[in-house]
TrEMBL record:
NCBIfam families: argS
GO BP terms, alphabetized: arginyl-tRNA aminoacylation
Compartments in which it is found: Cytoplasm
Example GO molecular function: ATP binding
Keyword Transport: no
Protein name as it appears in the record: Arginine--tRNA ligase
InterPro entries hit by this protein: aa-tRNA-synth_I_CS, Arg-tRNA-ligase, Arg-tRNA-synth_N, Arg-tRNA-synth_N_sf, ArgRS_core, Rossmann-like_a/b/a_fold
Alphabetic keyword roster: Aminoacyl-tRNA synthetase, ATP-binding, Cytoplasm, Ligase, Nucleotide-binding, Protein biosynthesis
Family affiliation: Belongs to the class-I aminoacyl-tRNA synthetase family.
Domain Arginyl tRNA synthetase N-terminal residue range list: 12-101
Organism: Candidatus Afipia apatlaquensis
């Protein structure tokens, strides 16, 4: 076998070598010829003392070979031992294969990193296939809070990785501007409007948004309309105030996201689904009804745990059970208006209509029970042509020296994302939001992330970078003729642990 391909990631290179060994065994009759090798992987071993890499080839191919995994592993291992980049091969347990590579393989990988710089690891695996990644999608009722932060950073990182892997990624934000919460926003902003006109409004009534962030909205309305809106009925002023408040809230949210270097490509309004004579929700339901996937009926009483949507009445139902869900789902409320789920079906249908067969949604932990029904709806409305992958992000517990952080005066009931970024910096926030697996609860201690100690992962990484940069700077000043990085004599690293 040849030396490592310098343009290829080392793990991918070793995987191709394992595939070549399997193909060779196919030629010898040990494995069936033309066997599907898509389940074969090469990854770091669970225990670093077992080697550099491990492969499950024998475990997943043993059945096709009609052999015991351990016996097949020994045959694969024998061939891998002949590879020029392999130092050692061990078979462990029932048939796992652990590999230790020669230093020259790592030196070759290091040279690739030096040559390719920030492009190292980029691939064309996505083949420019379109992917829609929807994340954040916070209600436009106020500034972003720290609870939104994790989904924002995770979604942005995921979109960047998909793009780096060759996918054509669209980053999308779904503006929830059609529910009752935006009418509450409008009424809250109207109070601030009256305040801007000189009226004493006193304590904000319960049920309205109390945060000071609505003061600028009130002032903007007063500047634009004077006292004109006070002379109108709520039915007249509410849509005007609502539109202004949503617009200003979205500008605030975009600013909050920009502070974390997050910028979406598309902002899709839920209200647009049923504006200007359009009834995309109704049209989508009609389309599903024509295929027999929507019907009028009654849901049976729930067994065991209560079903949140259950109402004992004749109603319009989506046949979700035909597509993998546990129960059929209502599409209309008792007052005849569409459920949020119905709007979600229509919204995801627009993604399909825009050419997206691959959709990724990043949701908060409280939406976990919503996954099956939306995936079922997408199967139905796209005739099983599109898929939805939902990533759940767990809660963030904001602490300072181990104690919960108090609420924000600006927001009224939560700590804003901007306050956190201003205190610890965007890099620290992004780093910590990705420090734990997305589906595990994260403790984010504001004091710890700015602490200059090895116990602070953010500082440790920044310190390592600064030290490395200092070494390079000193080397270039001391030895002006120092070769370029890509021609460095990396073999001098032989005695170092890589």
């Amino acid at each position: 076998m040849t030396s490592p391909t310098q343009s290829q990631h080392l793990f991918a290179d070793v995987l191709s070598r394992v595939h070549a060994v399997c193909a060779a065994l196919g030629g010898e009759g040990v494995l069936p010829a033309g066997l599907d090798l898509s389940r074969v992987v090469v990854e770091p071993p669970r225990d670093a003392t077992h080697g550099d890499m491990a492969t499950n080839a024998a475990m997943v191919l043993a059945k096709d070979a009609k052999a015991k995994p351990r016996e097949l592993a020994d045959k694969i291992a024998d061939k891998l031992r002949a590879d020029p980049i392999v130092e050692r091969v061990d078979v462990a347990g029932p048939g796992f294969i652990n590999l230790t590579l020669k230093s020259s393989a790592w030196f070759g990988a290091l040279r690739s990193v030096l040559e390719q710089g920030e492009g190292y690891g980029r691939s064309g695996i996505g083949a420019a296939e379109k992917v829609n990644v929807e994340y954040v999608s916070a209600n436009p009722t106020g500034p972003m809070h720290v609870g939104h932060c994790r989904g924002a950073v995770f979604g942005d990182a995921l979109a960047s990785l998909l793009s780096f892997a060759g996918y054509d990624v669209t980053k999308e934000y779904y503006i929830n501007d059609a529910g009752a919460q935006v009418d509450v926003l409008a009424r809250s902003a109207f109070l601030r409007y009256r305040e801007a006109l000189g009226e004493t409004i006193g304590e904000i009534p319960e049920g309205l948004y109390p945060g000071d962030y609505l003061v600028p909205v009130g002032k903007a309305l007063a500047s634009e309309y004077g006292d004109k809106l006070t002379q109108q009925s709520e039915a007249e002023w509410l849509p005007v105030v609502r539109a202004k408040a949503i617009s200003m809230m979205m500008e605030m949210i975009k600013g909050d996201l920009a502070a974390l270097n997050i910028r979406h490509d598309v902002f899709f309004s839920e209200r647009s689904l049923n504006e200007n004579g359009n009834d995309r929700v109704g049209a989508t339901i009609a389309e599903l009804r024509a295929k027999g996937d929507v019907y009028e009926g009654r849901l049976p009483p729930p067994k065991g745990a209560p079903v949140e949507d259950y109402e004992d009445r004749e109603q319009t139902l989506f046949r979700a059970t035909a597509f993998g869900d546990d129960v059929d789902r209502p599409l209309k409320k008792s007052d005849g208006s569409y459920t949020y789920f119905a709007s979600d079906i229509a919204y995801h249908k627009t993604k399909f209509d825009r050419g997206f067969l691959n959709m990724v949604d990043v949701w908060g932990a409280d939406h976990g029970g919503y996954i099956k029904r939306v995936q079922a709806a997408i199967k139905a409305v796209t005739n099983d042509k599109a898929t939805l992958d939902v990533k759940i992000v767990q809660l963030v517990k904001l602490l300072r020296n181990g104690e919960p952080v108090k609420m924000s005066k600006r927001s009224g009931d939560f700590v804003t994302l901007r306050e956190v970024v201003d205190e610890v910096g965007s890099d620290a926030v992004r780093f910590m939001m990705l420090f734990r697996k997305n589906d595990a609860v994260l403790d984010f201690d504001l004091a710890k992330v700015i602490e200059q100690s090895k116990d602070n992962a953010v500082f440790y990484v920044q310190y390592g970078h600064a030290r490395g940069y200092s070494i390079f700077k000193n080397a270039r000043e001391t030895v002006p003729s120092l070769p370029e990085d890509a021609t460095a004599r990396v073999a001098f690293l032989r005695d170092a642990k890589i």
